[in-house]
């Protein structure tokens, strides 16, 4: 049984920015550390990018939180490709699709700087994945606010190799994924046969960020001090669900009839009520794209039999989230699904191999 991990991660490092154009070198990100006895706890480091301190989960890897993981820093950063492959072997993973980490949040307000950062990240990832004998591929990042630069970057990463999709968040700077400004990007992704991979991410709505400004932030012994507790329930995962409803409820997939889309790390149980409502209006179309062009990553502890009964199995994929350390981390996908006892071997094979292969055109 082939096991394709549809959503692993790289922890960005100084090497990630080493391919920035010379004129942007002075603006390259650099890491700073905090005292260890503050409310940031083990999240005691941050990146400085575009004149601001940027807080992320376990990145930069000089923070204590990163060193507490059971994975070496070089493997987290994809500096040790052989070590990464060995870790995949231990997990029973044949292929990993690698997503970014700090791109789940905002990197820069300056869109030209964002484009330079994206270009360097993509070059780094292409080179490192290229050392894996085809076992590692990645989703490329783009400056979505500049469709002209994004289209050029899609063409460039296609030539570099190893890019297998296009990363985006559920909403981009308060714009829905179906905004007309993004159509040139979707057209180029379709032309290059690269799926759009919509991933959880916070901080991509300036409106919501402003809503939280000026409110005294509560302290709950935060395990994730990079996320304002008042944002829980409205940021990240709900953006993915919003994008799903926007895309399947609009003419986007008809406008781009060969474009594939994946929705990652937001679970899949929510698809049951949403698909039910979408089917009331356009059942034939919805059923034609689910599992053919639209895929959703399930968590291995969800009510998968219910999802399969109500929506189907052909649209489900899954992920390890390696080397992140949050609730979605699951190293042993095949064993965990098999141990449940309520998902058939045939359906497990689809979730782990057949469906991901259709999404990312693998094999």
Q: Could you characterize the architecture of this molecule?
A:
- 37% of the residues lie in helices and 15% in strands.
- The mean pLDDT is 94.
- Helix 4 runs parallel beside helix 5 and helix 5 runs parallel beside helix 6.
- The protein has helices at 64-67, 73-76, 81-91, 111-129, 147-160, 183-191, 206-212, 237-248, 252-255, 271-289, 304-310, 333-340, 345-360, and strands spanning 4-9, 30-33, 45-49, 52-54, 95-99, 136-140, 163-169, 171-172, 175-176, 196-199, 261-264, 294-298, 316-318.
- Helix 10 links the parallel strand 11 and strand 12 (294-298).
- Strands 1-5-6-7-10-11-12-13 form an 8-stranded parallel β-sheet, sandwiched between helices. The chain has a 3-stranded antiparallel β-sheet with strand order 2-3-4, with no helix packed on it.
- Write down the oligomeric state: single chain
Number of helical regions: 13
The H-and-E topology, N to C, reads as: EEEEHHHEHEHEEEHEHHHEHEHEHH
What is the class in the CATH system? Alpha Beta
Furnish the topology, listing elements before pairings:
Layout: E1 4-9, E2 30-33, E3 45-49, E4 52-54, H1 64-67, H2 73-76, H3 81-91, E5 95-99, H4 111-129, E6 136-140, H5 147-160, E7 163-169, E8 171-172, E9 175-176, H6 183-191, E10 196-199, H7 206-212, H8 237-248, H9 252-255, E11 261-264, H10 271-289, E12 294-298, H11 304-310, E13 316-318, H12 333-340, H13 345-360
Parallel strand pairs: 1-5, 5-6, 6-7, 7-10, 10-11, 11-12, 12-13
Antiparallel strand pairs: 2-3, 3-4, 8-9
